[in-house]
Amino acid sequence: MATTLEKVDVVTVGVGWTGGIVAAECAKAGLKVRGLERGSERSTIDYSMAHDEYRYAIRYELFQDLSKETITFRNHRKMNALPMRMMGSFLLGEGLGGAGTHWNGQNWRFLPYDFEIKSMTDEKYGSNKLGKDYLLQDWGITYDELEPYFNKFEYIAGISGEDNNPFWGKRSEPFPTPPMKKTPILERFETAAKNLGYHPFMLPSANLSEPYTNPDGSAIAACQYCGFCERFGCEYGAKSSAEITVIPTALKTGNYDIRYHSNVVEVLKKGNKVTGVRFFDTVTGEEFIQPAEVVVLTSYVLNNAKLLMVSNIGEQYDPETGRGTLGKNYCYQILPGASGFFEEQFNTFMGAGALGMTIDDFNGDSFDHSNLDFIHGASLSLTQTGMRPIAFNPVPPDTPAWGAEFKKASIHYYTRTLSIGGQGASMPHKENYMSLDPKYKDAYGVPLLQLTYNFTDQDRALHKYLSERSAEIMKEMGAEIIAASNPLTDYDIVPYQTTHNTGGTIMGKDPATSVVNTYLQHWDADNLFVVGAGNFAHNGGYNPTGTVGALAYRCAEGIINYSKAGGSLAS
Protein backbone atom coordinates (compact mmCIF):
# COMPACT_ATOMS: atom_id res chain seq x y z
CA MET A 1 0.00 0.00 0.00
CA ALA A 2 1.30 3.45 -0.95
CA THR A 3 2.45 5.87 1.75
CA THR A 4 0.98 9.37 1.34
CA LEU A 5 3.48 12.17 1.95
CA GLU A 6 2.85 15.70 3.14
CA LYS A 7 1.35 17.94 0.46
CA VAL A 8 3.55 20.54 -1.25
CA ASP A 9 2.74 23.56 -3.38
CA VAL A 10 4.65 22.32 -6.41
CA VAL A 11 6.14 18.95 -7.34
CA THR A 12 8.42 18.54 -10.35
CA VAL A 13 8.94 15.18 -12.04
CA GLY A 14 12.62 15.28 -12.94
CA VAL A 15 15.43 17.57 -11.75
CA GLY A 16 17.35 18.79 -14.78
CA TRP A 17 17.34 22.18 -16.48
CA THR A 18 13.55 22.52 -16.60
CA GLY A 19 12.93 21.08 -13.14
CA GLY A 20 15.70 23.22 -11.69
CA ILE A 21 14.45 26.43 -13.33
CA VAL A 22 10.87 25.84 -12.17
CA ALA A 23 12.09 24.99 -8.67
CA ALA A 24 14.35 28.04 -8.39
CA GLU A 25 11.74 30.53 -9.56
CA CYS A 26 8.87 29.04 -7.56
CA ALA A 27 10.96 28.64 -4.38
CA LYS A 28 12.16 32.26 -4.64
CA ALA A 29 8.48 33.26 -4.88
CA GLY A 30 7.80 31.48 -1.57
CA LEU A 31 6.23 28.27 -2.86
CA LYS A 32 7.18 24.95 -1.26
CA VAL A 33 8.66 22.80 -4.00
CA ARG A 34 9.72 19.16 -4.10
CA GLY A 35 11.74 17.62 -6.90
CA LEU A 36 11.38 13.91 -7.64
CA GLU A 37 14.45 12.53 -9.40
CA ARG A 38 14.61 8.86 -10.31
CA GLY A 39 18.39 8.93 -10.55
CA SER A 40 21.02 9.71 -7.93
CA GLU A 41 22.57 12.87 -6.55
CA ARG A 42 25.75 14.10 -8.24
CA SER A 43 27.83 17.25 -8.49
CA THR A 44 31.09 18.67 -9.83
CA ILE A 45 33.13 16.78 -7.23
CA ASP A 46 31.93 13.46 -8.70
CA TYR A 47 33.70 14.17 -12.00
CA SER A 48 37.29 14.39 -10.76
CA MET A 49 38.00 11.26 -12.85
CA ALA A 50 35.80 12.37 -15.76
CA HIS A 51 38.45 11.84 -18.45
CA ASP A 52 37.57 8.17 -18.81
CA GLU A 53 36.21 7.76 -22.32
CA TYR A 54 35.35 4.10 -21.87
CA ARG A 55 33.37 4.64 -18.64
CA TYR A 56 31.38 7.68 -19.74
CA ALA A 57 31.28 7.78 -23.55
CA ILE A 58 31.22 4.07 -24.33
CA ARG A 59 29.57 2.49 -21.26
CA TYR A 60 27.22 5.43 -20.61
CA GLU A 61 27.85 6.04 -16.91
CA LEU A 62 25.44 8.99 -16.71
CA PHE A 63 22.52 7.57 -18.65
CA GLN A 64 19.23 5.75 -18.14
CA ASP A 65 19.29 2.04 -17.28
CA LEU A 66 17.60 0.46 -20.29
CA SER A 67 17.18 -2.86 -18.48
CA LYS A 68 14.57 -1.10 -16.30
CA GLU A 69 12.98 1.26 -18.81
CA THR A 70 13.46 1.79 -22.52
CA ILE A 71 11.38 2.51 -25.61
CA THR A 72 10.19 0.37 -28.49
CA PHE A 73 10.78 1.46 -32.06
CA ARG A 74 9.41 0.89 -35.56
CA ASN A 75 9.63 2.77 -38.86
CA HIS A 76 5.94 2.46 -39.70
CA ARG A 77 2.64 1.15 -38.33
CA LYS A 78 2.89 -2.24 -40.08
CA MET A 79 6.31 -2.97 -38.56
CA ASN A 80 6.71 -4.91 -35.31
CA ALA A 81 8.10 -2.53 -32.68
CA LEU A 82 10.99 -3.89 -30.62
CA PRO A 83 12.70 -2.58 -27.46
CA MET A 84 15.89 -0.53 -27.70
CA ARG A 85 18.22 -2.71 -25.59
CA MET A 86 21.34 -0.54 -25.82
CA MET A 87 21.82 3.21 -26.17
CA GLY A 88 21.85 4.06 -29.83
CA SER A 89 20.45 6.96 -31.82
CA PHE A 90 19.92 9.15 -28.74
CA LEU A 91 21.09 9.11 -25.12
CA LEU A 92 18.55 9.30 -22.30
CA GLY A 93 19.82 11.10 -19.22
CA GLU A 94 19.21 10.21 -15.61
CA GLY A 95 20.31 11.66 -12.27
CA LEU A 96 20.58 15.18 -10.88
CA GLY A 97 20.98 17.64 -13.75
CA GLY A 98 19.49 15.21 -16.28
CA ALA A 99 20.71 15.46 -19.87
CA GLY A 100 21.99 18.97 -19.08
CA THR A 101 24.88 17.42 -17.17
CA HIS A 102 26.35 15.68 -20.20
CA TRP A 103 25.38 18.09 -22.99
CA ASN A 104 27.96 19.73 -25.21
CA GLY A 105 26.81 23.21 -24.26
CA GLN A 106 25.69 24.56 -27.64
CA ASN A 107 23.02 27.08 -26.72
CA TRP A 108 20.67 28.54 -29.31
CA ARG A 109 17.50 30.56 -29.61
CA PHE A 110 15.15 29.19 -32.25
CA LEU A 111 14.59 31.66 -35.08
CA PRO A 112 11.58 34.00 -35.38
CA TYR A 113 10.58 31.90 -38.39
CA ASP A 114 10.32 28.77 -36.24
CA PHE A 115 7.57 30.10 -33.99
CA GLU A 116 5.35 31.19 -36.89
CA ILE A 117 6.47 28.61 -39.42
CA LYS A 118 3.08 27.74 -40.89
CA SER A 119 1.91 31.34 -41.26
CA MET A 120 5.20 32.50 -42.77
CA THR A 121 5.59 29.48 -45.07
CA ASP A 122 2.01 29.71 -46.35
CA GLU A 123 2.35 33.43 -46.97
CA LYS A 124 5.59 33.13 -48.95
CA TYR A 125 5.28 29.76 -50.70
CA GLY A 126 1.60 28.86 -50.56
CA SER A 127 -0.25 26.39 -48.35
CA ASN A 128 0.72 23.31 -50.41
CA LYS A 129 4.49 23.71 -50.27
CA LEU A 130 5.00 20.38 -48.48
CA GLY A 131 1.65 18.65 -48.86
CA LYS A 132 -1.17 17.60 -46.56
CA ASP A 133 0.75 14.84 -44.77
CA TYR A 134 3.02 17.36 -43.05
CA LEU A 135 1.48 18.78 -39.87
CA LEU A 136 2.96 22.26 -39.76
CA GLN A 137 1.57 24.61 -37.14
CA ASP A 138 2.54 27.83 -35.38
CA TRP A 139 3.58 27.63 -31.73
CA GLY A 140 1.06 30.14 -30.41
CA ILE A 141 3.84 32.48 -29.31
CA THR A 142 6.25 34.69 -31.22
CA TYR A 143 10.00 35.12 -30.88
CA ASP A 144 9.50 38.65 -29.56
CA GLU A 145 7.16 37.39 -26.84
CA LEU A 146 9.67 34.72 -25.80
CA GLU A 147 12.77 36.94 -26.03
CA PRO A 148 12.77 38.06 -22.36
CA TYR A 149 12.77 34.42 -21.27
CA PHE A 150 15.64 33.59 -23.66
CA ASN A 151 17.55 36.48 -22.13
CA LYS A 152 16.83 35.30 -18.59
CA PHE A 153 18.14 31.79 -19.31
CA GLU A 154 21.30 33.06 -21.00
CA TYR A 155 22.18 35.32 -18.08
CA ILE A 156 21.59 32.54 -15.56
CA ALA A 157 23.80 30.20 -17.63
CA GLY A 158 26.40 32.88 -18.51
CA ILE A 159 26.34 32.02 -22.22
CA SER A 160 29.45 33.05 -24.18
CA GLY A 161 28.87 34.44 -27.66
CA GLU A 162 28.86 37.32 -30.12
CA ASP A 163 25.86 39.08 -31.65
CA ASN A 164 26.94 39.33 -35.29
CA ASN A 165 24.64 36.82 -36.99
CA PRO A 166 22.38 38.74 -39.42
CA PHE A 167 19.76 35.97 -39.52
CA TRP A 168 18.70 35.40 -35.94
CA GLY A 169 16.20 37.34 -33.83
CA LYS A 170 16.98 40.65 -32.16
CA ARG A 171 18.43 40.53 -28.66
CA SER A 172 17.47 42.84 -25.79
CA GLU A 173 20.96 42.57 -24.26
CA PRO A 174 24.42 41.41 -25.37
CA PHE A 175 25.72 37.98 -24.40
CA PRO A 176 26.78 37.91 -20.73
CA THR A 177 30.30 36.68 -21.58
CA PRO A 178 32.47 37.02 -24.72
CA PRO A 179 32.88 34.19 -27.24
CA MET A 180 35.29 31.31 -26.81
CA LYS A 181 38.77 31.21 -28.36
CA LYS A 182 38.94 31.36 -32.14
CA THR A 183 41.42 28.58 -32.90
CA PRO A 184 43.36 28.08 -36.17
CA ILE A 185 40.82 25.40 -37.17
CA LEU A 186 37.92 27.83 -36.72
CA GLU A 187 39.80 30.60 -38.51
CA ARG A 188 40.14 28.32 -41.52
CA PHE A 189 36.38 27.73 -41.56
CA GLU A 190 35.75 31.45 -41.12
CA THR A 191 37.96 32.38 -44.06
CA ALA A 192 36.39 29.77 -46.34
CA ALA A 193 32.84 30.79 -45.40
CA LYS A 194 33.56 34.48 -46.01
CA ASN A 195 35.20 33.66 -49.35
CA LEU A 196 31.91 32.03 -50.38
CA GLY A 197 29.89 35.05 -49.29
CA TYR A 198 28.54 33.59 -46.04
CA HIS A 199 28.35 35.08 -42.54
CA PRO A 200 30.33 33.02 -39.97
CA PHE A 201 30.11 33.71 -36.24
CA MET A 202 31.26 32.06 -33.03
CA LEU A 203 28.82 29.50 -31.69
CA PRO A 204 26.90 30.51 -28.50
CA SER A 205 28.43 28.38 -25.75
CA ALA A 206 27.62 27.22 -22.24
CA ASN A 207 31.32 26.30 -21.88
CA LEU A 208 32.22 29.70 -20.52
CA SER A 209 35.02 31.80 -21.96
CA GLU A 210 35.72 33.42 -18.57
CA PRO A 211 34.67 33.08 -14.91
CA TYR A 212 31.15 34.37 -14.33
CA THR A 213 28.76 34.94 -11.44
CA ASN A 214 25.11 34.85 -12.49
CA PRO A 215 22.30 37.10 -11.17
CA ASP A 216 21.40 34.48 -8.53
CA GLY A 217 24.97 34.47 -7.19
CA SER A 218 26.09 31.12 -8.66
CA ALA A 219 29.73 31.04 -9.79
CA ILE A 220 30.65 29.31 -13.04
CA ALA A 221 34.29 28.68 -13.92
CA ALA A 222 36.13 29.25 -17.21
CA CYS A 223 36.48 26.41 -19.71
CA GLN A 224 39.80 24.52 -19.80
CA TYR A 225 39.32 23.23 -23.39
CA CYS A 226 39.97 19.64 -22.29
CA GLY A 227 37.68 18.07 -24.90
CA PHE A 228 35.54 16.03 -22.49
CA CYS A 229 32.08 17.64 -22.64
CA GLU A 230 29.49 15.54 -24.44
CA ARG A 231 28.59 12.44 -22.34
CA PHE A 232 30.70 13.81 -19.46
CA GLY A 233 30.12 15.98 -16.42
CA CYS A 234 32.51 18.91 -16.08
CA GLU A 235 34.99 18.58 -13.21
CA TYR A 236 35.82 22.30 -13.43
CA GLY A 237 32.23 23.54 -13.08
CA ALA A 238 32.82 25.41 -16.34
CA LYS A 239 29.94 23.95 -18.34
CA SER A 240 26.67 25.53 -17.27
CA SER A 241 24.26 22.93 -15.97
CA ALA A 242 21.36 22.85 -13.54
CA GLU A 243 23.35 21.43 -10.62
CA ILE A 244 25.77 24.39 -10.54
CA THR A 245 23.19 27.13 -11.24
CA VAL A 246 19.44 26.87 -10.64
CA ILE A 247 19.38 23.91 -8.24
CA PRO A 248 21.68 25.56 -5.64
CA THR A 249 19.56 28.71 -6.03
CA ALA A 250 16.42 26.75 -5.22
CA LEU A 251 18.01 24.92 -2.27
CA LYS A 252 19.31 28.06 -0.57
CA THR A 253 15.76 29.47 -0.31
CA GLY A 254 14.82 26.77 2.22
CA ASN A 255 11.64 26.15 0.19
CA TYR A 256 12.98 23.27 -1.88
CA ASP A 257 14.02 19.67 -1.37
CA ILE A 258 14.81 16.74 -3.64
CA ARG A 259 13.94 13.06 -3.27
CA TYR A 260 16.32 10.87 -5.23
CA HIS A 261 15.68 7.35 -6.56
CA SER A 262 12.03 8.34 -7.01
CA ASN A 263 10.52 7.01 -10.21
CA VAL A 264 7.11 8.55 -10.97
CA VAL A 265 4.74 6.11 -12.69
CA GLU A 266 1.44 8.02 -12.67
CA VAL A 267 -0.02 11.51 -12.47
CA LEU A 268 -3.15 11.38 -10.30
CA LYS A 269 -6.18 13.28 -11.63
CA LYS A 270 -9.64 14.08 -10.31
CA GLY A 271 -12.03 16.06 -12.47
CA ASN A 272 -10.21 18.93 -14.16
CA LYS A 273 -7.41 18.93 -11.57
CA VAL A 274 -4.45 16.73 -10.82
CA THR A 275 -3.90 15.88 -7.16
CA GLY A 276 -0.29 14.68 -7.18
CA VAL A 277 1.84 11.81 -8.43
CA ARG A 278 2.51 8.17 -7.55
CA PHE A 279 6.11 7.00 -7.45
CA PHE A 280 8.37 4.14 -6.39
CA ASP A 281 11.60 4.33 -4.44
CA THR A 282 13.95 2.53 -6.84
CA VAL A 283 16.20 1.34 -3.99
CA THR A 284 13.66 0.03 -1.44
CA GLY A 285 10.74 -0.66 -3.79
CA GLU A 286 8.38 1.34 -1.56
CA GLU A 287 5.40 3.05 -3.19
CA PHE A 288 4.47 6.67 -2.37
CA ILE A 289 1.84 9.27 -3.18
CA GLN A 290 3.07 12.85 -3.38
CA PRO A 291 0.10 15.27 -3.17
CA ALA A 292 0.64 18.73 -4.66
CA GLU A 293 -1.28 21.86 -5.55
CA VAL A 294 0.62 21.97 -8.87
CA VAL A 295 2.29 19.11 -10.77
CA VAL A 296 5.00 19.94 -13.31
CA LEU A 297 6.37 17.33 -15.71
CA THR A 298 10.00 18.32 -16.23
CA SER A 299 11.56 15.01 -17.29
CA TYR A 300 12.80 14.14 -20.77
CA VAL A 301 10.60 14.52 -23.90
CA LEU A 302 9.74 10.83 -24.10
CA ASN A 303 8.95 10.39 -20.42
CA ASN A 304 6.72 13.47 -20.23
CA ALA A 305 4.57 12.09 -23.04
CA LYS A 306 4.56 8.60 -21.57
CA LEU A 307 3.42 9.81 -18.14
CA LEU A 308 0.46 11.62 -19.68
CA MET A 309 -0.44 8.53 -21.70
CA VAL A 310 -0.32 6.05 -18.81
CA SER A 311 -2.23 8.55 -16.64
CA ASN A 312 -4.93 8.87 -19.33
CA ILE A 313 -4.62 12.66 -19.47
CA GLY A 314 -5.33 14.07 -22.93
CA GLU A 315 -6.38 12.38 -26.16
CA GLN A 316 -3.85 10.09 -27.83
CA TYR A 317 -3.04 11.07 -31.41
CA ASP A 318 -4.44 8.68 -34.03
CA PRO A 319 -2.63 8.84 -37.40
CA GLU A 320 -5.56 7.08 -39.08
CA THR A 321 -8.12 9.76 -38.22
CA GLY A 322 -5.86 12.68 -37.36
CA ARG A 323 -7.69 13.12 -34.07
CA GLY A 324 -5.92 13.72 -30.75
CA THR A 325 -2.80 15.66 -29.87
CA LEU A 326 -0.85 13.60 -27.31
CA GLY A 327 2.14 11.98 -29.04
CA LYS A 328 1.62 14.04 -32.20
CA ASN A 329 4.36 15.92 -34.11
CA TYR A 330 7.28 13.80 -32.93
CA CYS A 331 10.37 15.14 -34.72
CA TYR A 332 14.00 14.16 -34.66
CA GLN A 333 16.86 16.02 -36.35
CA ILE A 334 18.57 15.71 -39.72
CA LEU A 335 22.38 15.72 -39.83
CA PRO A 336 23.79 16.82 -43.19
CA GLY A 337 27.48 17.57 -43.49
CA ALA A 338 30.85 16.75 -44.99
CA SER A 339 34.26 15.59 -43.80
CA GLY A 340 37.58 16.76 -45.16
CA PHE A 341 40.89 14.89 -45.02
CA PHE A 342 44.04 17.01 -44.99
CA GLU A 343 47.77 16.44 -45.17
CA GLU A 344 48.58 18.96 -42.44
CA GLN A 345 47.93 18.20 -38.79
CA PHE A 346 45.54 19.97 -36.41
CA ASN A 347 45.08 19.87 -32.64
CA THR A 348 41.76 18.03 -32.99
CA PHE A 349 42.22 16.28 -29.63
CA MET A 350 41.70 19.61 -27.83
CA GLY A 351 38.51 21.62 -27.64
CA ALA A 352 35.18 22.03 -25.89
CA GLY A 353 31.65 20.88 -26.50
CA ALA A 354 30.49 24.21 -27.90
CA LEU A 355 33.74 25.52 -29.39
CA GLY A 356 32.87 26.25 -32.99
CA MET A 357 31.91 28.58 -35.80
CA THR A 358 28.60 28.54 -37.58
CA ILE A 359 26.75 29.99 -40.55
CA ASP A 360 22.99 30.50 -40.69
CA ASP A 361 22.88 31.34 -44.38
CA PHE A 362 21.05 28.04 -44.94
CA ASN A 363 18.97 27.96 -41.76
CA GLY A 364 15.28 28.79 -41.34
CA ASP A 365 14.07 30.83 -44.28
CA SER A 366 17.36 32.73 -44.69
CA PHE A 367 17.50 31.53 -48.31
CA ASP A 368 14.83 31.20 -50.99
CA HIS A 369 13.02 27.84 -51.08
CA SER A 370 10.79 28.61 -54.07
CA ASN A 371 12.51 26.12 -56.35
CA LEU A 372 13.45 23.64 -53.62
CA ASP A 373 11.37 20.65 -52.51
CA PHE A 374 11.84 21.31 -48.79
CA ILE A 375 11.52 24.15 -46.28
CA HIS A 376 13.74 25.34 -43.44
CA GLY A 377 17.40 24.25 -43.28
CA ALA A 378 20.24 23.88 -40.79
CA SER A 379 22.93 25.74 -38.92
CA LEU A 380 26.18 24.57 -40.52
CA SER A 381 29.06 24.45 -38.04
CA LEU A 382 32.65 23.40 -37.72
CA THR A 383 33.13 22.45 -34.09
CA GLN A 384 36.31 21.58 -32.25
CA THR A 385 34.90 19.38 -29.50
CA GLY A 386 37.97 17.26 -28.80
CA MET A 387 38.28 13.99 -30.71
CA ARG A 388 38.75 11.09 -28.30
CA PRO A 389 40.74 8.05 -29.44
CA ILE A 390 38.30 5.17 -28.81
CA ALA A 391 35.27 6.48 -30.69
CA PHE A 392 37.05 8.66 -33.27
CA ASN A 393 38.70 6.76 -36.10
CA PRO A 394 38.19 8.79 -39.29
CA VAL A 395 39.30 7.33 -42.59
CA PRO A 396 38.65 8.41 -46.19
CA PRO A 397 35.99 6.64 -48.28
CA ASP A 398 36.93 3.23 -49.71
CA THR A 399 39.34 2.51 -46.85
CA PRO A 400 38.90 -1.09 -45.61
CA ALA A 401 36.89 -1.32 -42.40
CA TRP A 402 39.56 -3.42 -40.66
CA GLY A 403 43.10 -4.68 -41.02
CA ALA A 404 46.51 -3.09 -41.53
CA GLU A 405 45.37 -0.52 -44.10
CA PHE A 406 42.55 0.65 -41.83
CA LYS A 407 44.93 0.98 -38.86
CA LYS A 408 47.44 2.96 -40.90
CA ALA A 409 44.79 5.35 -42.26
CA SER A 410 43.15 5.73 -38.85
CA ILE A 411 46.42 6.75 -37.19
CA HIS A 412 47.35 9.06 -40.06
CA TYR A 413 44.03 10.92 -40.24
CA TYR A 414 43.30 11.15 -36.51
CA THR A 415 44.68 14.71 -36.44
CA ARG A 416 44.11 15.44 -40.15
CA THR A 417 40.31 15.28 -40.38
CA LEU A 418 37.84 18.14 -40.00
CA SER A 419 34.06 17.95 -40.33
CA ILE A 420 31.27 20.41 -41.04
CA GLY A 421 27.99 19.30 -39.52
CA GLY A 422 24.47 20.62 -39.79
CA GLN A 423 21.68 20.46 -37.25
CA GLY A 424 18.88 20.09 -39.76
CA ALA A 425 15.26 21.00 -39.07
CA SER A 426 12.70 18.20 -38.93
CA MET A 427 9.11 18.83 -39.98
CA PRO A 428 6.21 16.91 -38.38
CA HIS A 429 4.59 14.19 -40.47
CA LYS A 430 1.32 12.42 -39.79
CA GLU A 431 3.05 9.01 -39.57
CA ASN A 432 5.72 10.09 -37.06
CA TYR A 433 4.37 9.94 -33.52
CA MET A 434 4.59 8.49 -29.99
CA SER A 435 2.18 6.04 -28.38
CA LEU A 436 2.11 3.31 -25.72
CA ASP A 437 3.43 -0.11 -26.67
CA PRO A 438 0.66 -2.74 -26.38
CA LYS A 439 3.08 -5.54 -25.49
CA TYR A 440 6.20 -4.44 -23.61
CA LYS A 441 6.34 -2.99 -20.07
CA ASP A 442 9.01 -1.50 -17.83
CA ALA A 443 10.31 -2.80 -14.49
CA TYR A 444 7.30 -1.26 -12.71
CA GLY A 445 4.67 -2.83 -14.92
CA VAL A 446 4.06 0.36 -16.91
CA PRO A 447 3.78 0.12 -20.73
CA LEU A 448 6.83 1.28 -22.64
CA LEU A 449 6.65 4.25 -24.95
CA GLN A 450 6.47 3.23 -28.60
CA LEU A 451 8.18 5.41 -31.20
CA THR A 452 6.97 5.27 -34.80
CA TYR A 453 9.34 7.27 -36.98
CA ASN A 454 11.02 7.43 -40.34
CA PHE A 455 12.75 10.04 -42.45
CA THR A 456 10.52 11.78 -44.99
CA ASP A 457 10.98 13.19 -48.50
CA GLN A 458 11.40 16.63 -46.89
CA ASP A 459 14.23 15.26 -44.72
CA ARG A 460 16.01 13.60 -47.63
CA ALA A 461 15.86 16.70 -49.83
CA LEU A 462 17.11 18.98 -47.03
CA HIS A 463 19.92 16.55 -46.15
CA LYS A 464 21.14 16.26 -49.75
CA TYR A 465 21.11 20.01 -50.42
CA LEU A 466 22.93 20.95 -47.22
CA SER A 467 25.49 18.16 -47.47
CA GLU A 468 26.40 19.58 -50.88
CA ARG A 469 26.77 23.09 -49.39
CA SER A 470 28.95 21.65 -46.60
CA ALA A 471 31.19 19.92 -49.14
CA GLU A 472 31.63 23.23 -51.00
CA ILE A 473 32.83 24.93 -47.83
CA MET A 474 35.18 22.03 -47.09
CA LYS A 475 36.64 22.32 -50.59
CA GLU A 476 37.25 26.03 -49.99
CA MET A 477 39.02 25.06 -46.75
CA GLY A 478 41.56 23.12 -48.82
CA ALA A 479 40.80 19.50 -47.99
CA GLU A 480 42.63 16.91 -50.12
CA ILE A 481 39.74 14.45 -49.92
CA ILE A 482 36.10 15.43 -49.32
CA ALA A 483 33.33 13.08 -48.25
CA ALA A 484 29.80 14.47 -48.09
CA SER A 485 27.37 12.63 -45.81
CA ASN A 486 25.71 9.59 -47.36
CA PRO A 487 22.11 10.12 -48.57
CA LEU A 488 19.39 9.34 -46.05
CA THR A 489 17.62 6.01 -46.35
CA ASP A 490 15.40 4.67 -43.54
CA TYR A 491 15.92 5.93 -40.01
CA ASP A 492 17.57 3.41 -37.69
CA ILE A 493 17.71 3.44 -33.90
CA VAL A 494 21.51 2.96 -34.17
CA PRO A 495 24.11 4.43 -34.34
CA TYR A 496 24.13 7.61 -32.24
CA GLN A 497 22.88 10.64 -34.14
CA THR A 498 21.56 13.31 -31.75
CA THR A 499 19.56 13.49 -28.51
CA HIS A 500 17.43 16.29 -29.94
CA ASN A 501 14.01 14.60 -29.80
CA THR A 502 11.04 16.97 -29.89
CA GLY A 503 7.23 16.98 -29.96
CA GLY A 504 4.52 14.84 -28.44
CA THR A 505 3.31 17.45 -25.91
CA ILE A 506 3.10 20.40 -28.30
CA MET A 507 2.11 23.92 -27.29
CA GLY A 508 -0.35 26.28 -28.92
CA LYS A 509 -3.36 28.55 -28.58
CA ASP A 510 -5.98 25.94 -29.48
CA PRO A 511 -6.71 22.78 -27.44
CA ALA A 512 -7.81 21.07 -30.66
CA THR A 513 -4.24 21.21 -31.99
CA SER A 514 -2.04 21.30 -28.88
CA VAL A 515 -1.52 19.59 -25.52
CA VAL A 516 -0.60 22.68 -23.51
CA ASN A 517 -1.12 26.44 -23.79
CA THR A 518 1.67 28.97 -24.16
CA TYR A 519 2.41 28.87 -20.41
CA LEU A 520 2.83 25.09 -20.83
CA GLN A 521 -0.36 24.52 -18.81
CA HIS A 522 -2.32 21.41 -19.77
CA TRP A 523 -5.66 22.09 -21.44
CA ASP A 524 -7.37 19.27 -19.51
CA ALA A 525 -6.03 20.03 -16.02
CA ASP A 526 -5.30 23.63 -15.10
CA ASN A 527 -2.85 22.75 -12.30
CA LEU A 528 -0.73 20.49 -14.51
CA PHE A 529 2.20 21.93 -16.48
CA VAL A 530 4.37 20.06 -18.99
CA VAL A 531 7.62 21.68 -20.12
CA GLY A 532 10.46 20.59 -22.38
CA ALA A 533 11.35 20.04 -26.01
CA GLY A 534 8.14 18.01 -26.27
CA ASN A 535 6.40 21.40 -26.53
CA PHE A 536 8.04 22.12 -29.90
CA ALA A 537 5.60 21.96 -32.82
CA HIS A 538 8.56 20.97 -35.05
CA ASN A 539 12.32 20.71 -34.65
CA GLY A 540 14.54 23.56 -35.82
CA GLY A 541 18.04 23.97 -37.15
CA TYR A 542 19.63 24.22 -33.72
CA ASN A 543 20.24 22.42 -30.45
CA PRO A 544 16.96 22.74 -28.45
CA THR A 545 18.33 23.58 -24.97
CA GLY A 546 18.20 27.38 -25.14
CA THR A 547 14.60 27.31 -26.32
CA VAL A 548 13.72 24.75 -23.64
CA GLY A 549 15.29 27.02 -21.02
CA ALA A 550 13.22 29.97 -22.21
CA LEU A 551 10.02 27.91 -22.11
CA ALA A 552 10.89 26.75 -18.57
CA TYR A 553 11.11 30.36 -17.38
CA ARG A 554 7.78 31.16 -19.01
CA CYS A 555 6.30 28.04 -17.42
CA ALA A 556 7.59 29.09 -13.98
CA GLU A 557 6.00 32.50 -14.41
CA GLY A 558 2.71 30.79 -15.27
CA ILE A 559 2.88 28.54 -12.20
CA ILE A 560 3.57 31.47 -9.89
CA ASN A 561 0.69 33.48 -11.39
CA TYR A 562 -1.61 30.47 -11.16
CA SER A 563 -0.64 29.82 -7.55
CA LYS A 564 -1.28 33.43 -6.59
CA ALA A 565 -4.62 33.82 -8.40
CA GLY A 566 -5.89 30.30 -9.16
CA GLY A 567 -7.87 29.44 -12.29
CA SER A 568 -6.82 29.15 -15.90
CA LEU A 569 -4.11 31.24 -17.45
CA ALA A 570 -4.64 33.11 -20.68
CA SER A 571 -3.09 31.24 -23.60
TrEMBL record:
Keywords: FAD, Flavoprotein, Oxidoreductase. It comes from the Bacteria. GO terms for molecular function: flavin adenine dinucleotide binding; oxidoreductase activity, acting on CH-OH group of donors. Residues 222-329 form the Glucose-methanol-choline oxidoreductase N-terminal domain. Transmembrane segments: none annotated. The keyword Phosphoprotein does not apply. SUPFAM superfamilies: FAD-linked reductases, C-terminal domain (SSF54373), FAD/NAD(P)-binding domain (SSF51905). InterPro entries: FAD/NAD-bd_sf (IPR036188), GMC_OxRdtase_N (IPR000172), GMC_OxRtase_C (IPR007867). Residues 428-552 form the Glucose-methanol-choline oxidoreductase C-terminal domain. Belongs to the GMC oxidoreductase family. This is GMC family oxidoreductase. It comes from Ureibacillus endophyticus.
